[in-house]
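Is uridine-5'-diphosphate placement plausible here? Inputs below.
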Amino acid sequence: MTQPAYKRVLLKLSGEALMGDDSYGINRATIERMVADVSEVVKMGVELAIVIGGGNIFRGVAPGAQGMDRATADYMGMLATVMNSLALADAMRQFGMVARVMSAISIEQVVEPYVRPKALQYLEEGKVVIFAAGTGNPFFTTDTAAALRGSEIGAEVVLKATKVDGVYSADPNKDPTATRYASISFDDAISQHLQVMDATAFALCRDQKLPIRVFSIVKPGALSRIVMGEDEGTLVHV
Ligand code: UDP
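Reply from A.M.:
I modeled the complex. Tokens:
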């Protein structure tokens, strides 16, 4: 059998990816399908860490947070990522997988705190590690948490799951002539003002020479194909 292209990857799932076609919250069928995709990758022997967003439950800059102190709203957003992480870990448990949730903010009765050596140990043991509560700091995003944790654990790539199957020359929903890049350098993505991740996350990946692959979470089997080295979505490289 051919070997996977990676030994250790960081998967970034947006909170919205958990909604499926619902308008908020967690869609059961969607999370189960995601877990099935993830289990394929774990079965290949790839070490997998996940950062999950919270946008399906709460976003610090959303209309619902208007008038709120930004830092307070952001802490609510981080707590939303903890809920998603718990839901994901539980769905994995039901699927027969072993997952550990580690939180960047201290809520030890609920989840264990993020401790880097412990996270590395879990990964080496073949457990899926879910990083909850983003970076633990307001004014950041879970994309930045993905870049940060990906760098810390020595992931070879950040796999950013979105609803669109890659990075396009323009918004494919608005411009029918938009074309998808198979790969693009960090510098070209910047000069062409292409939105891959938020600026902080993007800068961290570029500095750390950590490639990002943007792919569609909606396409069945895409995650496995990427891990096997197939050219799916868009690779953003140094
Ligand atoms: N958040 C934060 N610091 C972090 C990560 C997240 O303050 O390090 C808050 C922020 O309010 C954000 C919310 O949590 O709007 C949810 O995260 P994000 O928007 O990245 O989730 P996604 O869009 O991936 O669902």
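Short version: Residues 160 and 214 are 5 Å apart (CA to CA).
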